[in-house]
Amino acid sequence: MKKTTHVPSNLTKLAKDFQSIDQMMTMLPVLKKMPIIDISEVLSLMENKDLFTVLCEFPISEQGEIFAEFPLVKQLSFFQQISKKRFSKIFEEMPSDARADLFQILTQQEQIDLLPFLNKHIRENVLALSSYPADTAGGIMITDFATVSRDMSCFEAIQKVRQDAPSKKTIYYVYVVGEDQTLVGFITLKDLIIAEPDVLVNDELHTEFVFGYVDESSESVAAKIDKYELVALPILNSKNQLVGIVTHDEAIDVIQAEHTEDMERFMGIISNNEELDYNQTSIFDHFKKRVFWLVTLAIVGIISGLIIHSYEGALAQMMILALYMPMVADTGGNAGSQSATVIIRALALGQVNMKSWFAILWKETRIALMLSICLGVLAFAKVVFLSWETDIPAAYSLVAIGGVIALALSLQVISSTIIGAALPLIVKKVGGDPAVVASPAITTIVDISGLLIYFSIAATFFNLK
Amino acid sequence: MKKTTHVPSNLTKLAKDFQSIDQMMTMLPVLKKMPIIDISEVLSLMENKDLFTVLCEFPISEQGEIFAEFPLVKQLSFFQQISKKRFSKIFEEMPSDARADLFQILTQQEQIDLLPFLNKHIRENVLALSSYPADTAGGIMITDFATVSRDMSCFEAIQKVRQDAPSKKTIYYVYVVGEDQTLVGFITLKDLIIAEPDVLVNDELHTEFVFGYVDESSESVAAKIDKYELVALPILNSKNQLVGIVTHDEAIDVIQAEHTEDMERFMGIISNNEELDYNQTSIFDHFKKRVFWLVTLAIVGIISGLIIHSYEGALAQMMILALYMPMVADTGGNAGSQSATVIIRALALGQVNMKSWFAILWKETRIALMLSICLGVLAFAKVVFLSWETDIPAAYSLVAIGGVIALALSLQVISSTIIGAALPLIVKKVGGDPAVVASPAITTIVDISGLLIYFSIAATFFNLK
């Protein structure tokens, strides 16, 4: 038990406290034994010049791997301060997906400066991979994988894999391709090891397999890796030729980014589908992501104002109604957001499907009934026991007023819960992402329905205005 | 290109439409070629009696795998309708984690009925695994892994793995243990294949590795698998002995469940940390998860009522203030929820740390300033252009009133954004999960601060009451 994940955070502290290059060199033997990710975390804190010196102490293949784990902005600034010829060596050793990601953010001139130093194979690979949008399977796949042909023996296949392997990131699945590179099946490394050496690959071949297409969304690809518990998913072009694989760790990154996107959307923040860091996003970009919904909903809020305006007379006659307006509006907003959250997650995890929409709404209605009874009783008690100071018209007792407000709140909870549950289903039905049903939007909608319920019930019972 | 992921959904439809056992038997050859997950999806729709007949058509090892993928309630009902002796054969072939999960939900009597039919090794394994809480590493690990000792040659190691492998779910990492079963390092299957056959395992050994402990939280273990991009993470007991591994697909499940939990908590739904299905959760359980926050916040809403009550006189003098109350409250709630969402995600993804809390709040303040200008201008325009019908006191112009309401809204947006950003940081500081800062709670808090800002500014400028 020598190195653990606890050490790096100390080292990170060290690297921060003693940033002199000499001290880093002293730490080098310890550093070299750590996982690549941790080495990268420590080195990314250094100045580019010192970083270069330290990086040169690692074998060239590790230089690429360590560099690939730096944040993109760090990669870019390092790239800009080092000779392109020297950099090309590091670049060639980076995983193909990280290479394409960096290449995509270079200016055209920077790309032109770098390309001549790359060997032909790498150059073509970079140009091909960086042509795919970041949110497609093509944008997240790597091109290092092992292939064999079906007429090899398992022994020959292992020999082939052994030969190719050092340059492959993942060889747990060995893909079996025809002469035209179309994917005919796969065989796991485990199968190869277990099989008798002279058995043909063809006999162990899995011809039924899950795959993705290059232009498929990264989210769909990640969902397949999740569902089928794969270590990697083969990616095909339109001719069914194998062009790359997406690995399980990419799938986790996609799922994490999707979560951020869902949560932001649900809070009325416009998500631009790029995996951006909070700190790296400028204040103006943060502003742009948030302002649209805030302004839109404030405009829609005019309707609430108009409703209150039309009941101004009623309000003047019975001022106590103003006191409980926020409670009715807020409770409705909360209940609606809750049911929307539950339905959005259930849809995202595939726990409910569109066919059962009636059953879902019926279930939500029954839940809402239980909630409305609790909250109605609470509202009644609040009005009766806490309003002794408020002037009320002599014609009505506090109990009657409490009853009416409790009834209004109960109806508001029921309608809000149903609206909150129905909106994601409707959005899904018309082909949208249910997560766009933002909680602020629900709040604003049920505010309007709530005020209508509240005032129309009060006006009816008390003959106001 | 024969079977793809598109077929299963059709088959699911088929299984639903023609539930006769004969038709299912006809489909069997097609079914058998599908991935286990898909077979399981189709079969889970059948009646237990028919299901048993169809299941018997599969090899016994696949019976366990297919059965393990059924929802837990289906597993339970099947278990209850079949002889325990026959069931023990299926049970023994299930992955060890799925076995423990089912065992944990059996009644004590059911456990006692099943145990005698299990072989000794499996019985001990089930009892050991089911003793770990579901949200710890022990609760999600599997006990099938490959171990070798360091003095073996790579050739011998491969022979050992070949021998053991059929019973191991994952052999991509081969663990190297000492005589007392303490973990001394690992070697990947890839290393073994690439190495010359007579090289000692000891020479290829990775002695620096990431691991987890049995009592560590499942979320912490999943985060390690994510960070270090592992296919599996070794799990040790307090004596540093290797007792299990957690695989990458479990990590995805944990991350998904964690996200549901975060989102539910954020919407004021009490999350009970169990991965429950929407449909399988009873109405009463749904009710219980939601009612606590709704009632609590409705009670806290009393404060809003008291504030309005104390400004009743002001409201009566200037009824136009009532019209813009919802806009101020809602916009504040939305702005606060947005900043809280952004900070909670940034904390969850490790993009910001507690040391930079001042920088975060300063950044949020500047974003809020930009938002407040937009919304202030909007509020001013609303008041000036849409309030011609409302009676206002002769002493003040609509422009003056618009200016005051715009100022109040701007201050509300700024204070709400800062409150929304600060609350998760405070919760994290005192050691809690930032995601418990529920959006409904923020809404309620900024409602109170908003009403105070709104009425105190209006009262000051217009000398009300």
Automatic annotation (TrEMBL), chains A, B:
* Family to which the UniProt record says this protein belongs: Belongs to the SLC41A transporter family.
Q: Which InterPro entries match?
A: CBS_dom, CBS_dom_sf, Mg_transptr_MgtE_intracell_dom, MgtE_N_sf, MgtE_transporter, SLC41_membr_dom, SLC41_membr_dom_sf
Gene (UniProt): mgtE
Give GO MF terms, alphabetically: magnesium ion transmembrane transporter activity; metal ion binding
Q: Which domain of life is it from?
A: Bacteria
**SUPFAM superfamilies named among the record's database cross-references:** CBS-domain pair (SSF54631), MgtE membrane domain-like (SSF161093), MgtE N-terminal domain-like (SSF158791)
- Species assigned in the record: Myroides albus
Q: Where in the cell is it found?
A: Cell membrane; Membrane
Q: What is this protein called?
A: Magnesium transporter MgtE
Transmembrane stretches, start-end: 291-311, 367-388, 394-423, 435-462
Q: What does this protein do?
A: Acts as a magnesium transporter.
Keywords in alphabetical order, please.
CBS domain, Cell membrane, Magnesium, Membrane, Metal-binding, Transmembrane, Transmembrane helix, Transport
Which residue ranges does the record assign to the CBS domain?
141-204, 205-261
